[in-house]
Amino acid sequence: MTDAIFSFSQNHVNLINAPDDSKAAILTNHSIKEFIFVTVFKGANILGILGCRYLNARVCELMAVPDVLNIRKYNKTFHKAVLGMLKKLIDKSSFRRFQLLVDVDFNEGQRWARGLGFEYEATLKKYSEKGKDQFVYVRFK
User: What average pLDDT is seen over the chain?
Assistant: First the structure.
């Protein structure tokens, strides 16, 4: 079976194995008009939910919530799907800057951001909903 990308549906949040705060963030951001989500599947398995938020005419903020159970088995598939989506955004959109936020203590997320071609730019102090510091990673067109 091949991987597939579908328009996001709120019931996908019930299918994903992810921390409750990540699920809440998806639902909160889904209600924001400027955020667009898609869901990545491999057959019947959900691999993750991706989001893109329009910040201004030149800047897009990305969000990815992988399924913690399926990501171990399908890590490369999910990574390729995200790279493909990112390439389409870079090639076809007017955005010049793409950014994502990663908690400072989430080493896997930082490594993954670099694997997607993002570079560390700054630290936002006490920025997350839990009051944690977050790193800003950026990639330019």
Answer: 87
Which residues, in sequence order, are CB contacts of 77 under 8 Å at separation 6+? 3, 42, 47
Q: Do the beta carbons of residue 102 and residue 113 sit within 8 Å?
A: yes
pLDDT tens for each residue of 56-114: 999 999 988 889 888 778 888 888 888 988 998 899 999 999 999 999 998 989 999 99
Are 39 and 3 spatial neighbours (Cβ–Cβ below 8 Å)? Answer: no
Distances (CA, A) of 7 to 39, 49, 50, 105, 125: 6, 10, 10, 31, 33
40 in Cβ contact with 51 (< 8 Å): no
At residue 1, the pLDDT reads 43
Global pTM?
A: 0.81
